[in-house]
């Protein structure tokens, strides 16, 4: 990960959006709260149409016990993502991303079991790109289910790129593609030129739950 520069104050919306468009993202130091800009090299991109889903998880998806929503609990999802021993999400970041969400530039997917929020994820949306930021789960596999539903949604809405910054032990199961900075910026520029809508104008507020809606390649 390449450290770029410091910005400790609340992030103005135009600065934050421009940073994402240039391939940079902020993280806060878990001890000092200091905000810095970063650019991961290699950068992890997650192919989502089709999405590679491990067979074991695919079997669980066929017995899906959850229901899904989007943008109904954005701040709650973000705070749940921050609820860990060491976190890069501080109050400045929460306030900044909630501002993005209120202007339609950041979205969340919520995973519910009955009336309880048990998992979810959030990220930034620009053009045809979704920049995945973080996810959480309170029951086993909920964050993985959220990621699958995100992939289905992005494919249905004709997004071009799902960027996840860095590969983790969780996302590695979905076979992310690791690319160098130059390749990433070329693909980012092309994807930003696409106009993808998060919401279907005919069915706002819905996240589809049909597993057959988007093809999934089984490992």
- Main beta-sheet annotation: 7 strands, mixed
Q: Indicate the CATH architecture.
A: 3-Layer(aba) Sandwich
Number of domains: 1
The CATH homologous superfamily is termed Leucyl/phenylalanyl-tRNA-protein transferase, C-terminal domain
Alpha-carbon Rg, integer = 16 Å
Describe the structure.
With 219 residues, the protein is of the alpha+beta class. It has a single domain (43-218), classed as Aminopeptidase (3-Layer(aba) Sandwich). The chain contains 6 helices and 12 strands. It is globular and about 40 Å long. The protein starts with a strand and ends with a strand.
Provide keyphrases for this structure.
219 residues, alpha+beta, Aminopeptidase, 3-stranded antiparallel beta sheet, globular, disordered N terminus
Task: Quickly describe the structure.
This protein has 6 helices and 12 strands.
Topology record:
Layout: E1 2-6, H1 13-21, E2 25-28, E3 35-39, E4 43-45, E5 51-53, H2 55-61, E6 67-70, H3 74-82, H4 91-102, E7 106-113, E8 116-126, E9 129-137, H5 142-156, E10 161-165, E11 177-179, H6 181-192, E12 216-218
Parallel strand pairs: 5-12, 9-10
Antiparallel strand pairs: 1-3, 2-3, 4-10, 4-11, 6-7, 7-8, 8-9
Helix pairs in contact: 3-4
């Amino acid at each position: 990960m390449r450290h770029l520069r410091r910005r400790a104050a609340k992030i103005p919306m135009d600065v934050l959006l421009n940073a994402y468009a240039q391939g940079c993202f902020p993280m806060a130091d878990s001890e000092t709260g200091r905000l810095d800009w970063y650019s991961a090299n290699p950068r992890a991109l997650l192919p989502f149409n089709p999405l590679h889903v491990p067979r074991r998880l695919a079997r669980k998806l066929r017995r899906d016990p959850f229901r899904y929503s989007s943008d109904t609990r954005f701040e709650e999802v973000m705070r749940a993502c921050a609820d860990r021993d060491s976190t890069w999400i501080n109050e400045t970041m929460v306030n900044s991303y909630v501002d993005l969400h209120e202007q339609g530039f950041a979205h969340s997917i919520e995973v519910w079991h009955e009336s309880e929020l048990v998992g979810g994820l959030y990220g930034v949306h620009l053009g045809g790109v979704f920049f995945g930021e973080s996810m959480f789960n309170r029951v086993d596999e909920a964050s993985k289910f959220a990621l699958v539903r995100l992939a289905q949604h992005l494919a249905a809405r004709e997004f071009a790129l799902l960027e996840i910054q860095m590969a983790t032990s969780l996302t590695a199961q979905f076979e992310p593609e690791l690319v160098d900075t130059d390749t990433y910026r070329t693909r980012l520029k092309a994807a930003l030129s696409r106009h993808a809508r998060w919401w279907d104008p005919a069915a706002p507020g819905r996240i589809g739950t049909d597993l057959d809606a988007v093809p999934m390649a089984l490992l």
